[in-house]
Amino acid sequence: MSKIHVTTTVNGDEVEFLADPRESLLDCLRDHLGLTGSKEGCGTGDCGACSVTLDGTLVCSCLVLGVEAEGRRVATIEGMAEGNALHPLQRKFLEHAALQCGFCTPGILVAAKALLEKNPDPTETEVRYWLAGNLCRCTGYDKIIRAVLDAAAEMRQEAA
Amino acid sequence: MVTVNLWSSLERFTGGQTAVEIEAETVAGVLDGLKAAYPGLAPILDTGVSVVIDGEVATGRHASVADAGEVFLMQRMKGG
Amino acid sequence: MAKDELSEFHLVGTRPLRPDGLDKVTGRARYGADVSMPGMLWGAVVRSPHAHARIVRIDASKAEALPGVKAVVTRADFPEGLTGENWNLQENTMAGERALYDGHAVAAVAATSALRAQEAARLIEVEYEVLPHVIDVDDAIRPDAPVIREGAADATVPEGSPPNVARYIEFGHGDTEAGFAKADLVRARSYKTEATHQGYIEPHACLGQLGADGKGEMWVCTQGQWFIRQMCSSVLGLEAAQLRVTPSEIGGGFGGKTTIFMEPLSLALSRKAGGRPVKIVMTRSEVLRATGPTASASMDVKIGMTKDGMITAADAEFRMQGGAFPGAPVDMALYCAFAPYKLPASRHVGYDVLANRPKCAAYRAPGSPMGAFAVESLIDEMCRELGLDPLDVRLKNAVKEGDRASYGPTFGSIGLVETLEAVKSHPNLELPLGPNQGRGIASGYWFNHSGETSVSLAISEDGTVQVSVGTPDIGGSRASIALMTAETLGIAYEDVRVNVVETGALGVNEPTHGSRATFASGKAAVIAARRAIAEMCRRAAAEWGIDAEAVEWANGAAQPAGPNAGKFPPMGIEEIAAKMGSTGGPISGHHESVPEGVGASFGCHVVDVEVDPETGRTTILRYLVVQDAGRAIHPSYVEGQFQGGAAQGIGWALNEAYVYGQDGRLQNAVFLDYRVPVASDLPMIDTQIVEVPNPGHPFGVRGVGETGITPPLPAIANAIEAAAGVRMRSLPMSPPKVLAAIKAAREG
Ligand code: FES
Ligand code: FES
After folding, report:
1. Residues with CB under 6 A from ligand 2
2. A46 CB under 6 A from ligand 1?
């Protein structure tokens, strides 16, 4: 199958790649652009390890075709910190020991950031339901939820 | 002489005994002594067993049983 | 960094940031599938769609004709003549005469892209002759069941046993009949648990390269790089030292990544493709169909109890299938089942049975959760019948140091009583419950494990320290090993870097399994640090012109001691390190052993549930884990192990199960259908760390990774009975099953 030339913006940078039309956005990010921070846990939209935003909307990049990224804006875990300044969520994940193996972490951070942009003051239940599409097998979610709530509180304070 | 406690289904190979006396100073001596006295045990010992000395899994064939209060043979232990 | 003021330690027990944390929150950490190499090919595996079939013919000509296809391998490319577990591993890597389960690999192909490799795999034609199959353990143990493998029984199996029994075990002590006669209540019940998968979110991935000269390299997500090296070498007939295996960061393992699956295929394909590296990444459905789930179990248990709650005798017969190969952890299940109880008399019988399912792999305290489900459920049921408090009964019968374990030997230092007392005084037990709500408790046990361990430590020129360990870090072990090393050396946590190294850089290490990384690598690191300290004291003594024996190490510095005390200012590690080139050369310490002194860990969980009488759905309202850690080096990661184990146990109890069709095919090979707990299924998981230090470890560590998965299965069953009045004796306790039980009870 002949490849399609795709021009898109990833984490603010304009990038180009050649995609087989069958390839997912996740495959293109990982294999063509070397952005391996987004993970594949299932390839069927069930685990959230591949979470990115597409024009600001949270998506499973394994369910988006690479060619669909043409002309859009993609944001991945690699773009979450500003230089060496971590996003509050990243910092709180470290402080709360909210990761064990860390494989789910990029997807959960991207998803949690999308939540806090929509809802800066979520309840525990809202965080749990928002993140229900992001599987973590190691932590039992306890410390993840605490980290998200704590980051939200800090971000609200900063905003105030 | 140490008394080696076997799991009971091994009694088929030891003439009905689940505790046998073996002349041995080390785990190696226990295993070799068991094989010599009860050749039917050899294939089972060869696939791997744990020797538990006073409640602790012996860490090797060199481990001493000379002052052991109790010696148990168990299936090989590991974990996930 | 908060620290307990009363602690005798500076660092042990604190909660610093983990050294690998920054890479993991920024997406930089490199896992199994994240690395590529120049000239790399992609591999894909052809798998049997049948549970049991003779492989009549494999025709790869169409695939080989596809442009970009560089190699195809089948079993014909593997050496012959292997025996025992090596043969099992080879047969599981690639089927020989017969495919033994749905998902069994039969061929593999390497091509220039992942898509091309998948296309080629579809073009490989395999002709099968379908054979009768058997899935359920109670069917598989029947004398007339389809025979999985002639001659699979080992010497433990008595003659005349059913054909699929591969191993047999029986042990016990005392007179059980007399014990049952003394009891006021004797109950016998049967229980079943289904196979579940470890469910690590990272699928297996490897990148292997093997030349015609027999030298190779591999990058792989694994719990144990030396196991990968040894197993791949045996299966392919290579020399172990010629293969260098580098462990990637690992996205969860829980026991499932202690063995090989497709790793040898990448090497075999690479060798055939002229030594080009070959990357293989499993799909989720391959992970579920073809990598180690746990065993399924069918268990009969009988217990005798007096009316004041003393257990008088116990009898257990467990049948477990662990797939088409021997290895179901039936022995471990029996060893652990009654471990929390002092038994006057017992009899344990176990059968390891073959069935047409994937080869089971270790899963967190292998076997223990099944045994606990049966025993802890029955004890709860009997407490209920006798009107006794289940926690008091557990305390009354609890084993202590010096007691004989249910599996034979005498316990050393253990903390079961302390754990149960901590549960008893926990505020969660006082919280009121509403209608349709119930509370359940259960205990659990795991031995913990030591194993072959090598650690090497080197002092850098500026006095900072690097530690090389061979146990991959799955849940924070680099942090805990750095804490113990820094504590021993009297230096800052940040001045120690712990590296998980490849097989070429260190002596043999067993994997991170058996909850051993913090115990065994930690203990070896402490001993290695002490060796380096001894050398640093010698260097200072030489400088001062006094005896090395007259020098002590304290606060990160050599100090003149005894008659010389105060004669010289302390010589710090930086100063010694800066001069080491001119005082005798590099300073390091290393330690290799199978560390002695493993300490077992008991836990007790309390769960509050609500059962919806209309739907049968169980909601976990509250969850408490109390467990003896010996000593928590980094308490956050100890809590994390407790919480993670509990969550996996909750999934096993309520949702997770392998579901097979009549055709023997796995029907739920995606996460949508194999449903692990998600964030909205769970509440916060409360933890309490009990510390009864293990005398066999310099800081008292016991190992905490595994025990936590054991109590949830029975604790939830016990809570469901308290909430809904129905006793569930088979897992999972899914809404339809609970609802059916509620309806039957109403009509009954
Ligand atoms: S990999 Fe996309 S949801 Fe799992
Ligand atoms: S930390 Fe391992 S999957 Fe979440």
Report:
1. A 99-104, 136-139; C 201, 252
2. yes
Q: Kindly provide the ipTM of the predicted complex, given to two decimals.
A: 0.98
Minimum-distance CB partner of C252 among A38, A103, A146: A103
Residue C667 phi/psi, 5° resolution?
Answer: -95, -10
**Are C252 and A138 within 8 A, CB to CB?**
yes
Tell me which residue in B40, B57, B70 faces C598 most closely, judged by beta carbons: B57
What are the tokens at C484?
């113990």
Q: Determine the average pLDDT of the residues in C699-726.
A: 97
Distance CA B15, CA B78 (A): 30
Output the pLDDT for position C7: 63
Nearest to B55 among C331, C410, C594 (CB): C410
From C586's Cα to the closest Cα of chain B, the distance in A is 31
Asked if C241 and C503 touch (Cβ cutoff 8 Å), the reply is no
Say whether both C224 and C281 belong to one domain: yes
Check which CATH number belongs to the domain holding C48 and give it: 3.90.1170.50
How does pLDDT run across C628-669, given as a tens digit for each residue?
Answer: 999 999 999 999 999 999 999 999 999 999 999 999 999 999
My answer on whether C442 and C471 are in the same domain is no
* pLDDT tens digit sequence for A84-106: 999 999 999 999 999 999 999 99
CATH number reported for the structural domain that contains residue A71 in this entry: 3.10.20.30
CATH number at residue A114: 1.10.150.120
Distance from CA of C20 to the nearest CA of A (A): 9
Task: Give the span between the Cα atoms of C30 and C524, in whole angstroms.
Answer: 27
Q: Residue B15: which domain range?
A: 2-75
Q: Does A17 touch chain C (CB under 8 A)?
A: no
Q: Is A48 in the pocket of ligand 1 (CB under 6 A)?
A: yes
Q: Is C699 in the same domain as C583?
A: no
Range of the domain at A17: 4-79
Residue type at position C48 = S
Output DSSP code: residue C507.
S
CATH code (residue C554): 3.30.365.10
Distance of CA B40 from the midpoint of ligand 2 (Å): 47
User: Which of A44, A102, A129 has the CB atom closest to C671's CB atom?
Assistant: A44
CB pairs under 8 A between B and C: 101
Determine whether the shortest distance from the Cβ of A45 to ligand 1 is under 6 A.
yes
Residues C556 and C672 grouped into a single domain = no
Q: Is residue B60 part of a domain?
A: yes
Cα C719 to Cα C385, C651, C657, C712, C732, distances in angstroms: 15, 15, 20, 10, 14
B55 in any annotated domain = yes
Q: Cβ contacts (< 8 Å) between C597 and chain B: which residues?
A: 56
Q: Write out the E strands in C18-154.
A: 41-47, 53-59, 69-73, 98-99, 105-111, 125-130
Residues of B with CB below 8 A from C593's CB? 59
Whether the predicted model's global pTM rises above the 0.95 cut: yes
Task: Tell me, yes or no, whether A40 and A98 share the same domain.
Answer: no
| Number of folded domains that form chain C | 3
Inter-helix orientation angle C330-337/C368-386, to 10°:
30
Q: Is C739 a member of any domain?
A: yes
C158–B5 CB contact, under 8 Å: no
C in contact with A (at least 3 C-beta pairs within 8 A): yes
Q: Do B79 and C516 touch (CB under 8 A)?
A: yes
pLDDT at C748: 77
* Distance from chain centroid for Cα A34: 16
Answer whether residue C2 is part of any domain.
no
Domain end marker among C569, C593, C617: C593
Residue C515 is predicted with a pLDDT of 86
Q: Where are the beta strands (DSSP E) in C87-204?
A: 98-99, 105-111, 125-130, 165-173, 185-193
Burial class (CB in 10 A: 0-12, 13-18, 19+), C564: middle
% residues pLDDT > 90 (chain C): 97
The answer to whether B5 contacts C596, with C-beta atoms less than 8 Å apart, is: no
